[in-house]
Amino acid sequence: MLYFDSDYMAGAHPEVMRRLMETNLEHTVGYGLDEYSEEARRRIRAECAAPDALVQFFVGGTQTNATAISALLRPYEGVMAASTAHINVHESGAVERGGHKVLVLPSYDGKVSARDVAGYIRDFYRDDTYEHMVAPGMLYITQPTELGTLYTLEELEELSRICRETHIHLYLDGARLGYALASTAADFTLRDIARLCDVFYIGGTKCGALFGEALVAANPKILPHFFPIVKQHGALLAKGRLQGIQFATLFTDDLYVRIARHANELAMKLRAAFEQKGWPVVIDSPTNQQFVKLPNEVMDQLRLSASFEIWGTRGETETTVRFVTSWATTEEDIEQLISLI
Amino acid sequence: MLYFDSDYMAGAHPEVMRRLMETNLEHTVGYGLDEYSEEARRRIRAECAAPDALVQFFVGGTQTNATAISALLRPYEGVMAASTAHINVHESGAVERGGHKVLVLPSYDGKVSARDVAGYIRDFYRDDTYEHMVAPGMLYITQPTELGTLYTLEELEELSRICRETHIHLYLDGARLGYALASTAADFTLRDIARLCDVFYIGGTKCGALFGEALVAANPKILPHFFPIVKQHGALLAKGRLQGIQFATLFTDDLYVRIARHANELAMKLRAAFEQKGWPVVIDSPTNQQFVKLPNEVMDQLRLSASFEIWGTRGETETTVRFVTSWATTEEDIEQLISLI
Amino acid sequence: MLYFDSDYMAGAHPEVMRRLMETNLEHTVGYGLDEYSEEARRRIRAECAAPDALVQFFVGGTQTNATAISALLRPYEGVMAASTAHINVHESGAVERGGHKVLVLPSYDGKVSARDVAGYIRDFYRDDTYEHMVAPGMLYITQPTELGTLYTLEELEELSRICRETHIHLYLDGARLGYALASTAADFTLRDIARLCDVFYIGGTKCGALFGEALVAANPKILPHFFPIVKQHGALLAKGRLQGIQFATLFTDDLYVRIARHANELAMKLRAAFEQKGWPVVIDSPTNQQFVKLPNEVMDQLRLSASFEIWGTRGETETTVRFVTSWATTEEDIEQLISLI
Amino acid sequence: MLYFDSDYMAGAHPEVMRRLMETNLEHTVGYGLDEYSEEARRRIRAECAAPDALVQFFVGGTQTNATAISALLRPYEGVMAASTAHINVHESGAVERGGHKVLVLPSYDGKVSARDVAGYIRDFYRDDTYEHMVAPGMLYITQPTELGTLYTLEELEELSRICRETHIHLYLDGARLGYALASTAADFTLRDIARLCDVFYIGGTKCGALFGEALVAANPKILPHFFPIVKQHGALLAKGRLQGIQFATLFTDDLYVRIARHANELAMKLRAAFEQKGWPVVIDSPTNQQFVKLPNEVMDQLRLSASFEIWGTRGETETTVRFVTSWATTEEDIEQLISLI
Asked: Quick one: DSSP state of residue B291?
């Protein structure tokens, strides 16, 4: 069977596993206060050109989002996000469990528009009854989005400008950030992200780690007393060094971006093959997720040999499906898949 | 000045005040365990033909909604509601503070459609990832809606049927229920409401009381241990008899509906006057809220003598405004207002 | 029957009712933005010598406490309180529902000691694991306490000093504040309270109003964006003027303290009668609550003619009971009760 | 340096690491729906003699407790626990963040007494005001306790009986359950735990895994719709198989108990050495945590070569400290430590 369901189906990149094995019998203090975690923080700060940055490790994305949003928002504030945003759809209401409303904006292939964001904020304060409504306190974006698309540097600059002018936090969910940074379409760097967003996270789970996400705030004062808040959310890993070792490894010799580039390249090959076949690629994604509309008979045949997700519901005659590559996808996997379509 | 901003600008109906005065020096136990509260519950149960109903008094609508929704939903569930629903717009995120997501449905002049409700539930369980999403656990509707419109009996029957088939609570916010029951367009009774909804509330604040809402659940088992939950929400009034006396009075000699009918009739007069003037009545509301589009110069002139709300934002040349009548609006008020337009 | 169960068994002081009747048919804007609420705020600010104070009205005490505590604490903080504190015992976990822990201190007849408070804070930060624990963010005290006792001015000064030195909010629950201010044992004024506490509330429900509490923060910056937080807690009264009218009346001609003084005087008469009988007054309360240990046969006989609460559980041969007076208690009530014991 | 601070200072048992390495490149579905997780659940169910048991994996203890408590309690309920309980002290208020109060009982070297539990429940319902108080809905115990002590089978039977008679959930936090099961003092089995507790968890983090806890409910109906609740708490691991592989390994050939037995034996050697020296062992712990009172000069000297925790605060002349062994502690470590004292 060929696996294209998602980018978290295999374990960790072998280099990451090697380091976990090497260090396994060492004793260190817990909760991320160890030397490996410190090294990882140092490497991330350097890569972000944010020498004072708070870097806090988490185990998974929902946990990261829920904790950061709780810590950043005041009780009467909500978080603006695209209708397709992970926090709005696929986190079982974790944001609401934390007491905050998701303020939904239109999604353009996964992205929000600066125009909509600015408009929402402006209209909110123009409404005579705004004190009875949930105030926008944060903008949540994903890079790449849930649909594989990217914000350009100009778009990020514009969103950042609007947020700073209106005193709203800009938060970037980078569950798949590696694939964004490695994309040939990327005109931004990690430094840009760190400079333009108040808080963001560098995804590990989907980008080469066993698990783990690194939350970064260039200005640490934005998240005071964050440690007990992390603990309170059940998000503090006892053996924090596991996250430290993994991120230190991923941020050595550019491993994080290198393995994502590999996945992107394979995704592009796949996309070319779909296009050649004449099957409509429904979203212009320059990253590791590709969405294509397949005739149902093709899809059904293909499912016998490959696993992938139906995107939405099965259509009458054709259905949109998603293929995802990762560091664990091989050239052979792709060639075999292409040979089957 | 003529007051048409809302239906909570005056105190209580004089008959309600008379009873509060008469009983003021009596001593009773607190928290709604007194005889007046019991009398009110008895009268409401009789009117609802729901002899076993749980009847719990609250002070205001947001509090009522937040408490009932918290009590009815399980942690992973959310509440479906029209985009225009009070809980979605004007309760400062009280539902989310309680940990639950509002699942937004299209609003048709304030109403949800049975088709959309059924479709939402069906699509939810068809989605392979539904266990990562907020499950619909309740449908919230308002009667009359925030836009003054009414669900017909057939529509209520249909929504109730869908909810019962799918094991979803049907909750009706009756902040202005009096105006619905008293409407000439109403083809339903309070008994129908009590029969078709799992939980609903009879609004007092906007319908003749100083304050107070009466939550009703025909089957009390749906809200076990509700008393401490009410207390926990800060919603338990020490001198609960104040609510008892008010509702007992409103439910004597049909006062509740009589005073709402008066308000509706005046609203209809006003509407007729607008139509005669040729100003578009933008929503077909058979209750005490009327929405009309006025030329800006007319609106500005009128505001010198009358108060009313702009609905949304001021337009370039004309603006939609809302006029609200209540038990406290007099024939003279309406005649004077009409003479000014 | 003679009523001594509590101080919220009758309606409002006749003067308060008179004003509610007089103004009943007036139209005003809602939510406390009216002139009566403004007048009440002005009077309270003057009485507190706190010209910039935020004054926000609530309906009841649990609601007031829950909203203020939510607004003041950061997620990782808890509130220190005596084990007997109302928030720790009788609010059905409203503080915890808001996400915060009550950090329990020993209760000395309802009071905390400065020594314990200082010790708790000191020990907390000395503990190596304090970042895994709930940080003390607020001290909650009641004046008078649930047991009728009073903090002296010196004690309040000391608690305030500790709190300010350690950057912890001092919050005073004044559900029965009138009885404290009117006590012959009081060596403090309302100005002292306003000066020494960051936030406190002046109780109306138990002190002459139908309902209502006035939260005061001398420095309004301590509660930014408080309005939507109040709304979110379901604590914003539509007809806010009802609270304004009541507090404006209570703070005219010293009515608030005068009626409490009357209640205290009657309580002292009762206490003297108990002492004369030789029944042990178990708490030295200089306010309107009196706790006495009665032989069971006396208690049982008395209950035929008078209502009052058992404090804790019935003893083998004697039982501690509580008698509460209020503005509504008359000289005749007390004389009659004394004649019965 | 010799490490005795805690039982989570090293990585995973080599056998666990070996299996993680072996399976690393395999592709599986996520979220615990894979074959390894299923195998682990099967093994755990067998070991518990609970064929229908719900077994849900978590990453850490605080997360496990918070999620289970949220799922089990109704809004008005709280959880009884010893004052020393981890949820009461060292989880940064995670239970309260979930909306529930910890109802504190006396701690006898970490344990609650059946007498206190029964008394608390009885007194609660005898209190006339109990509907204004937080109802006991669960009893939380730890096995071994935070102080290394154990409940006997008889004690567990008694607590279970009380809980079932009063319809209160019995929850057992087994963060260190291996050390309990492996103790020479243990007169209970895992089957007893599964039979007597409604819900409990088998700790992995402190007992041989990199991370992970396995929550078990013999009757799965007690936790309906648990999956989205886990997700909502940010506690669902994407690569759930990591937990499956670890627990399947630990529950093969009795590895889980074998490695704990090793740790206990070393702890007993250490204890004997302390006793021989005449230093008071302050708690009679038959598991891997040992508490001893050391003269300060001995302690200070020892800290140059060994790490361990001060328990509480440093005393004037002697101080209580904690030594913890684990699967990673060697005979040599213990001998070296003993040679130093």
From this structure: E
